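QUALITY CONTROL LOG
STEP: pairwise intake check
CHECKER ROLE: data steward
CRITERIA: each record must contain a sequence immediately followed by its structure tokens, with no blank fields

ENTRY 1 OF 2
RESULT FIELD BELOW
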Amino acid sequence: MEYRNLGHSGVKVSPLCLGAMTFGEADQDSFMHKVSADESTSFRLIDRALDAGVNFIDTADVYGQDGLSERVLGKWFDQHKRRDEVVLATKFRFRMGGGPNGTGASRRRIVQCVEDSLRRLRTDRIDLYQIHMQDIDTPEEETLRALDDLIRQGKVLYLGASNYAAYRLMESLALADARHLTRFVSLQAQYSLVVRDLEREHVPLCRRQGLGVLPWSPLARGFLSGKYKQGQEPPSGTRFATWRERYEALDTPRNWRILGALQEVAGQCGASCSQVALRWLMQRETVSSVIMGVRTMAQLEDNLKAAELSLSASQMQQLTEASAFELGYPYDFLERVQRRW
């Protein structure tokens, strides 16, 4: 397993990150109901991932219900005593309690959230603490100062952002520099062959500012796994058999063209579609680690092989061209004139 720096930081992470959103049997009130792994399966997935060289695990307080994913991880840490082998990432921001202060990124909320996560995870520190989405109701300086305090207290080691608009991310980085506060080292965002919008603003920003990109939903919620066929119903037991509206939104000529190119390259490599889709991201600039969400051992074993794969320049170009997307103004104007922006 190769290891990479997490953005401009000195910490090394595996190019595949184990996403823990599916960990724990979520009840019917959770959006993860019927698409998650029970505790014993989750433990086996963690064991196998670490044994294969994965050293990076990502979760969030909101995954499952009542911090379910964090509680599962905390129990695994307590039983296996392998905490120091893991670069542990979690997130805060979304609602975890009632009342007007049960959500957001205020200082009051951050102090409460970090203590709750530390308790559920049964650990004394969080390696990468990420704000799950920007909070336009809270001044960014308030959020950054509270997070900087956590760094100084040793409860958090690195900071990351997720689901930020580019303007807000740049404002945050500039503010951190001006106020001598700890800046973000990473951006976790949706990124895949299907969803490449990040390349308009965020990828150039991260490249220039030294942030590592952590793609979530790299297989477009499983669409790029190759199990779906144009004009056919989603196979029973898959996410899209439950989430029909999301499947219908993906049923476009562009996406089937992407899948066709993916299948062709996978055939050339003797690999699965999932492996190739993950590897395409791993070879994109600014990507530090790709978050893989798995709920079965078969899915994990398949995804792990992406770390052993290598795509040629022509294969990368084939996939990039097949997944070309409309840039929109002013990016198309800039691209026509200078071939870059």
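ENTRY 2 OF 2
RESULT FIELD BELOW
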Amino acid sequence: MARSALLNVMVQAALKAGKSLSRDFGEVQNLQVSVKGPSDFVSQADLKAEKIVHDELMKARPTYGFLGEEGGEEKGTDGSHRWIVDPLDGTTNFLHGIPQFAVSIALERNGEIVAGVIFNPATDELFTAEKGGGAFLNDRRLRVAARRVLSDCVIGCGAPHLGRGNHGKFLVELRHVMGEVAGVRRFGAAALDLAYVAAGRIDGFWETDLSAWDMAAGLILIREAGGFASDMKGSNDIFDHGSVVAGNELIHKQLLEVINRPIPTA
């Protein structure tokens, strides 16, 4: 597959950060059994990966803005471009030695995501997409799954946890979805969940309380793979509302309807 110069820069940054995370992941698998746990170690792995990505991207395009999970936002002199980066999506998985985590990098141009890269170094899976150029896993073209009814579908989700999210609201959404689908999955890394929708591994996905860096690269992957993504109300204000619902055209529409059903009164 042919890649633009910018996408190549993003890929190289993701691979370099992924190599660093792979080394640290080997260490954290040993550390996880200790009483204290490897939380501080993981924080350092996260920061180190973001610095690698930041340095690689800014070396190539020093005038672009940069929004990272760890370092916050840097305004660029070029007001039309911004990198959006999560150096370690799936931190809790990483912390527990679960090989479901990724580096996520997106490029925003005039408010629109135009390129995205998601790399899981544990599985050596590289997801890439550019506006108008399609979505790929390594060098294989991706298409969202073609299932037409929820009863045939496996749907991914994010679940709130201690100190985070609206637990009651999620349980209502889950109750509604469970009754309509073939299976529900919670993998713990939103960027990879969205990439899995693009790859047809899961048929749809929904989650709330997300940040731009969790979703940006995954959104263009899904759209370039022929899928649809919106916020929980069906609008395109995904970053503003911090929620996402995704799938092919039919499943996206059905999933929106199910998760927005009113709370049962009985």
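INTAKE CHECK: passed for both entries
DESCRIPTIVE NOTE, ENTRY 2: The CA atoms of residues 191 and 214 lie 6 Å apart.
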